[in-house]
Known about the structure:
It is a single chain. The protein has helices spanning 10-24, 30-39, 43-62, 67-84, 87-94, 97-102, 109-125, 129-146, 149-166, 169-185. By secondary structure, the protein is mostly helical. Helices cover 78% and strands 0% of the residues.
Amino acid sequence: MPANTEPEDAGPRRALDERLAATAAGEGEPEAEGLALLDRERWAEAAEVLEEALDRAERRAGRGGDRHEVLRARLDLARALTGTGDLDRAIGLLGPLPDEFAALPEPDENARARALSSLGAAYLRARRPVAATNFFGQALEIYRRLGAVDRQAAMFAHIAEAARLRGDGAAEKAARARAAELQEALPAE
């Protein structure tokens, strides 16, 4: 590879490294550090930082702050907890989130779909593929309404994994085919 080119994922990696460095130097927000750790799949570290971020968001909300911020913080923490394997706690945090995002004064359908997808991922990791499929299906419907083709493809890939765990080869094959079809429909970057 020529010296003046970077691997395809170098830009996002560099941005994550910069967020982590800024936070370590006391210049960044801890929430940004938690998200950077989450993006790097450093689950335990992310969970610790995001726990603190949730506490701060809840304190601010108690003083008239943004309820949406609390819900996002719970979602991020639950994603980290899923990664650590603390599935009961993750599911407990995620369970009410889809309805809470929908009940906001300005409902956040994208966050609602992310919560449903994360709930599906937690149930899939808990080896409960039927429940996981239900949540992935609900997220898929929202992503269809939003026109998020890339997220639809991801939901079909998750549905395929759930079908594999159930031992349903035909459903797995159909879901993988639909995911591939949607991926092919995406514009080239």
